[in-house]
Design goal:
Layout (H helix, E strand, L loop, with lengths): L10 E6 L4 H11 L4 E11 L4 E2 L4 E2 H11 L3 E6 L5 H17 L4 E3 L6 H12 L4 E3 L7 H10 L3 E8 L14 H5 L14 E7 L9 E14 L5 E13 L3
Parallel strand pairs: 1-2, 1-6, 2-5, 6-7
Antiparallel strand pairs: 3-4, 8-9, 8-11, 10-11
Length: about 240
Amino acid sequence: MGIDSLNKSKLKISLSWSGGKDSAYALWKLQQDPDYTVSRLHTTFGETSKRVGMHGIHESLIEKQAEAIGLPLDKIYYPASGDNQAYEKAMDAYLDKLESEAIYHIAYGDIFLEDLKKYRENQLATRGFEGVFPLWGKDTEVLAEEFINSGFKTLICAADADKIDKAWVGKVFDRDFLTGLTQNIDPCGENGEFHTFCYEGPIFSDSMPVVLKEKISNTYKFENENGIKVEKKYWFQEIALKTT
């Protein structure tokens, strides 16, 4: 069975969930859209770290979010080497699972990164799946304001040390934060300038009690688009569930 044989009036979706504001707002938008039913969430974690990529958020926090949202969470692990083929193999296995449940659509919180969108669409198309992008093409300044106005609260959990001052890491994503951004930084951090962790909002049954621990830094070595080896430093805010 493929997507053409499904009832298009109510498409079932698995949402790619990072725990941050974009995936949270994408879920909120989809929940208000009569054409879709978000059936489950899925998150990719480091096989060893059990954390979300560049967000640095531990899977225990993601599990708590899913519980507060009221949707099942599927966890996909990738090797520490970051090997893309291994990642694609893991995702392919996940598509097998979705196919067995007649879910042929995956939603993402992407906004304007065209290369990433095309990559996702091409990978899905090889298996007869389609991507859904509820935030695509929206003005990021407008999106940031809408996110705040909708009652979401989120923390800056990671940031590019060259672009975001350490003092902002661990702070709430609010108008003060937006006002302090320089013009070369996207208001939604779509270019990877910063990442967030959402702990309150209309998609949650209750606010998540969290506590901020230490701030740490990590330096990554990679080749840029010109084949030049570079190093990038990032700040991370360690966040944990508050215990009574």
